[in-house]
Write the structure tokens for this entry.
Amino acid sequence: MRFDEVVLAIMRAVDGQRTVSSPYHLIKGKKSGQTIQDIGYFGLHPYFAVLPKLDKQEYLASIDRLQTQGYLIPDDNSVKLHRSAFDLEIPSTPLNGWKYRSNENRFFARLSLVVQTMSNFMQGQKRFDPVVTDETVQMWAKAYLNRIDFRSPAVQEAFKNQLESSLALAKTTEAHKDILMERLSGYGVGGLTWDQLAMEHKLLPIDVKIAVVEAVHAWLDVLEEMKHPMLAGLLEGIVQTSALTESAKRTQNLAERGFSLKQIAELRQLKTSTIEDHFVEMAMNDPAFSFAPFMDEHLFESIKHISKELKSMRLRDIKERLPEASYFQIRLALAMRGGVT
Amino acid sequence: MNLEKLLYDAYGYTEFRPGQKQVIEQVLAGRDVLALLPTGMGKSLCYQLPGKVLPGAIVIVSPLLSLMQDQVAQLKKMGEKSVIAINSFMKPEDREKAWNTLGTYKFIFVAPEMLVQPYVLGKLNALGISLLVADEAHCISQWGFDFRPDYLRIAEVLPKLGNPQTLALTATATDKVTDEIKHYLKLSDPFIYSHPMDRENISYDIRKFENDHEKLEALMNLVAEYGGPGIIYAGTRRKSQELAERLLTLGIRAAFYHGGMEQQDRIFVQQQFANKELEWVCATNAFGMGVHIPDIRHVIHFQLPSSIEGYVQEVGRAGRDSLPSLATLLYAAGDERLVESLIMDDLPERHEIELIYERGEEAKHLIEQGMMRETAYRIISYWRERLPLQGTLNQIERLKIEKQRQAASVRGLVHSSGCIRQYISMSFDQKNPSIPPNCCSFHGIDHSLFKGNRRELKASQHGSWKERLKVLLPI
Ligand SMILES: Nc1ncnc2c1ncn2[C@@H]1O[C@H](COP(=O)(O)OP(=O)(O)OP(=O)(O)O)[C@@H](O)[C@H]1O
Ligand SMILES: [Mg+2]
Ligand SMILES: [Zn+2]
């Protein structure tokens, strides 16, 4: 998937209902209530936080291209796509941003250092400049390497074989795997920069960045299944057990202990609106979530009904028809409809 | 104490380089020291070795994040384990951990802006500092080419640290800058070691052209005839990118390097260069201070540097293995105009100064909106705490004059008709250097020395991922 296709895929989902910068926040992984709830409403899980370091200029360049190509119609208020944008074939993607939450970067940093270390030791080089300067990753890698006894040729061979066989199973293109491997370094072999990769593969730098994320996500999917101790070790702390953000998890704990929304806001010294965001997030993620404390059955059904009738997820449209409902109630009801992870 | 034995035992070097022993002896004798040693002579050793003897911590202040990281990596590579770098880019949890275990580290690198924070000061104070090192100490000079206002803050915190013994290191200081260093770092009766800045193994060549087109053609011929490994310095990021692309289309292995790239990519380029996967790196001055790759044979300036000091720093990347190396400066008529506009672009403008005085901290947001340059903000917010508006305006005016003086001395480098080596030494208030063979284009250079040694590069690895994996992990 090229970067422009990622942007288009998001835009097709939110067409007419969100601003042109909303895909940007989603791709960067902004943890605001709006972004998080949109993921559920519109089924945007794959794209969350896939490029946390995305530069605004790079995003604007993509918008520019989409407008020039006629897919996107310039509009100050919201995303307005041309019909042709819906006819476009967008390839399916192994991206799974909501699950990995940018943690693939930590995984890849560990892997880079582990491969570089093995590569050097295998070839008799015990001193080298580490390709990753982050102290935490360095310490982690050192402990990991010792744990697997990386100096043993048998371990090295097993490690390499497992890398190869697992990556072979990853559901992504060979070209993406090539790019991913070129980001790794070893003895006498430096990783390639984004610009070098872009030139070699005749893509934009931003496209090779997405390609690596796709390949790593696909690979992580395989590694998680394999449950082999050696490579599984690299996943330590990478895959979150709960789909909730850290802060929402804390709110959830308090809610389970019987505290009300207001009490939680006071206890945590956070704005009520923030805690509301957390409940929306819980509604989105927890199939057993109950709306009962917040509205009666009748109101819930009305919101769902009107949303369907208007074919809109726009809070304002619904509020106009149902003034008695609060924005929070509307958001909650809509979140439950989309409620999958 | 037998320092030679200590040197060998600690780092495996059999002898000191000129100046190192004198400096280290004085440091161990408890004196403040200012060491002026040329680029690549081994200034770092002047605090590394004392670290093996002194009881307390060595705190090193370093101007650039990348420089700090390089030095930490270098120390670790030399087998030193108790090294840590503390900077404002660390994740809060990492920083907290670092603070709590600070006592276990011997070498502590700190960014100057961290040093002034009361919390940091408290932690360092509790620790017992044996030696405070100001690396690249010329950054303290307000008039210098590389002024970092945060360096002036070192002076302010010295008393709060109980005025520890201080070692100042630099490769590029005029008499004026030397005085400033002494003054601001409050060096009391310091031992000053000053080695000639001149690097004998570097031959200086200057070539002049009528226009840009000819200059570019000359560069293409140079890279075809002369071997790398080399650096081509361009004035701007865009230019560095452009030049790299040109070389690539000629089938020459090149990459660009500048401050706008993410850190991982910059590490990759450095590694490829060190691995001999690249012949040329086209760079801005971000690839300078502290870069240590021993066998760089050729440094080419495609655009005029903005000061002689900067020029010496950049040229100083060449020949760090002491073997003959070439520094070529390419000049096209009118090039000084570009430099002058770049210099002026760097200076804070009146409206920026006024904005920062009006809005204070808030003005920071203007950086993101592209209405204010980061460097301007850094410099002005320093002065804002100390001077009224008019004072700062005067200060910047003086800075402008100084920058123009530096630009003029670069013009002099190009247009004076004498020995280039002599001109450079003179700019540093040093006496006439001796003239080595192949001194400069004025004294004559035997170019056959440098020509045609294009080295064999490794075949590039552009196979499938499986093939690359086999290269990375050959079993
Ligand atoms: N006595 C010695 N014998 C052999 N090698 C040495 C000696 N002292 C230092 N070196 C090596 O010289 C190289 C350059 O040293 P260093 O980085 O300290 O230079 P520097 O003077 O700080 O240069 P710069 O001004 O560019 O920062 C290092 O690789 C170091 O290990
Ligand atoms: Mg140095
Ligand atoms: Zn000469």
